[in-house]
Prior knowledge:
Elements: H1 3-28, H2 35-47, H3 49-59, H4 62-70, H5 77-93, H6 114-142, H7 145-158, H8 160-169, H9 173-188, H10 197-200, H11 211-217, E1 225-228, E2 232-235, H12 236-248, H13 250-254, H14 259-275, H15 280-287, H16 291-309
Antiparallel strand pairs: 1-2
Amino acid sequence: MKPLSWMVLLVAFIAVGCAHNSTSTLSMEPTVPSVQEQQATSATADKNPSQSKELTAEHSPPEVEEVQEQKSPPASKEETEDLSDEDLDFEEDLDFLEEEPEEAEAVLIADPLEPVNRAIFHFNDRLYFWFLKPAARGYNWVFPEDFRVAVRNFFVNLLFPVRFVNSILQGNFRGAGIELSRFTVNSTLGFFGFFDPSSRGLNLPMQDEDVGQTLGVWRLGHGFFINLPVLGPHSTRSLVGWVGDSFLDPITWYVHPLIWRRLAVTSYRKFNNVSLTLGDYEALKEAAIDPYVAIRNAYIQYRNALVKKRFVPPKPQPSNE
């Protein structure tokens, strides 16, 4: 082949290669709209804003679109508050680690004789389960509950002087009037107190007052705790009150002068009351970690409640309307 033909072929190959490179470069570069296209776009934007956004998006470079898609919108205030609330809740759940344990409930009465009182408590506990409870079960089997309730009503009515005098000593004259009315009605219509029409029909509640409560109303403290054989828990104040109540008890004056007979009547009264409350002591003992402390605190709280109560008003009768 002639050298001239080789030169023509070489120039043709070089021209084709340059044309190919220029087209590939133009395809990779972003297309820039011409001036006429920009004027048409601005005119369209003035007339229809929605179309202008579409045209702008079409002519925007692809790199810019990818960057806009990767950018996430800022979190709203509600989401920020939700996150902060979750953090706070988590911190509150851990607050119990910094809290100090609550102090144990303070003993409401001094107990300097605790070793002796505990020994007497165990004695009374065995006496109850080995003798008193089986005897009360046999007593309940022989005598129906109505009979035992009637016996309790009789002794309650008989102790009217204790409640009447202590109501006056506490300045509770309305309660004293209620007690006088109760004694009159129950001794007559109630057949010597075996029935209690004053509580059921006349709405005259019993005023449970004694000398120990009167001393409490007069601001005398409990003293210290004493656990007595058979008689059970007492404080020095309630023990003095028990002695004072015995002087107001008609059994002390009208029963045979021999002391053992008076004790027999009083013991029967206590025994009849126990037969009507079987199970209460067992429930309290089973629920307590230390039964001795539970009995002691329960007794003192009960006596405090009686002193604060002082007067039991009649319940309003429901209207028939």
